[in-house]
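hi support,

uploading two proteins for the ticket. first:
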Amino acid sequence: MNYEIVGDNLPAVLIRLDAGEVVTCESGSMSWMDAGIEMKTEGGGVGKMFGRMFTGENLMLNKYVANQAGEIAFASSFPGSIRAIEVTPDKPVIAQKGTFLASVGNVEMSVHFQKKVGGALFGGEGIIMQKFSGSGLVFVEIDGSAVEYDLQPGETKIVDTGYTAVMDASVGYDIVTVKGIKNIVFGGEGLFNTVLTGPGHVILQTMPISGTAMKLYQYMPHPSN
């Protein structure tokens, strides 16, 4: 298997499968493919189906099996970026809801609950996130452009809520209150920030879809009461 990510702010990932190889995606994600690739829809059990629902994904998964070598493509659903992340048994990955695009290999997707109440209630990424474990490649959608950092042990990055897209499970995640009444009232940054603490790799996004929706809402006509 090999892949190529094409496009600018409306990207797609082109995955070239050899005969017998399989790629998994949520239902409705495939954009185009060559003949000789066969689709099989499955749920994987009631628990896993509801887990996907809670993380913003569809209930069912599609598996595309290459009966002969061919190409299959998955396009982003929102202007942004696509990243390929390697998952290994000793390095699971945590991501915001709705990032999953496709995976190759033995990648298991499950629900990840924020352990700290502050992060769960005010973190912007929400109480429920996605966890990818196992062994293989997972392709994720990033809102806007992706900016990546490798945090060293104890190194921190303070992030406005909603801008954290993906992080290694080893990265600490906490929420802190913005200090100072003036900063809270007039700073325009909200009440809370996310603090990420290494070690581990993090991917930040430049255009969270929630913030984009709120900005567009300001310019939409609203019926008068």
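and the second one:
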Amino acid sequence: MEKITLSLVLASSLMMAVDVAVDQTKLATDITAAKAEKSAAEEKLKALEAQLPQNQDIITHMQLGYIKTDGNTKTETFSLDGSFKKAWGNNSGSIIFDGQYGNADGAETKNKYFVELQYAYLFTDTLSFTYLVGYKNDKFSSYNYQAYTGPGMKWATYKSDRQKLDLEASLLYSQDVLQSVIAPADDTNTYSSYQAKLAYELNIFENLKFKQGLSYRSSFEDANNYFIFSNSSLSSKISDVFSAGMSYKIDYTNIAPGKEKQDNTLAAFISLDY
């Protein structure tokens, strides 16, 4: 009798082990199938979202930066960045503004700004035709002003949940007017030029973002006549619309008679996006 009972217990345990193994195998299969369905659903969602029209609202970004030092030398540096973009169908228009002001011991040491207006027409999800108009005024540079305009192409090279990279190239008609203290007041240099731009974004963490903007503008006739502008920033979200961070800007002019070629600006900032 004991042998029969023991045999029944062993058989029952074996059957339970087999059932558990079958259940685990089925569970693993179901999990794999669910993951595949999730991946397919996400791809379908991305494809459907890509068919939606562009955001028709005005997208606004404002960034106010400030650095102050005390001691033997008292300095203040202000910077104001702004951008506005409006899309309608495959068309879009944008305005970018960047201004900087600084003083040391009460004496003005920096006073510059530039503004760019751009029209874009979207051919595909990644390729756009652009037309650019730009103007730069820098009180402490060698120029009264610099102006440029012309067509170009913009390529949304890469985009993922964490990273974004845009490249842009433009063919431009440029006009630079030298300051009268360096040359005759009517000394105006007009020439054909080109500009290459890069815009990169990286979401390091959910609320921490790195941005890098870089532009290179140069004359076709004189390769030594070129301008470089770099804007690096690290920002963290503090609310739905406000962020705080640090930015470092480099403004380089290769031909700058009587002036420093490179101008650097470091600032802490508060930005507003809506």
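thanks. also noticed: The radius of gyration is 29 Å.
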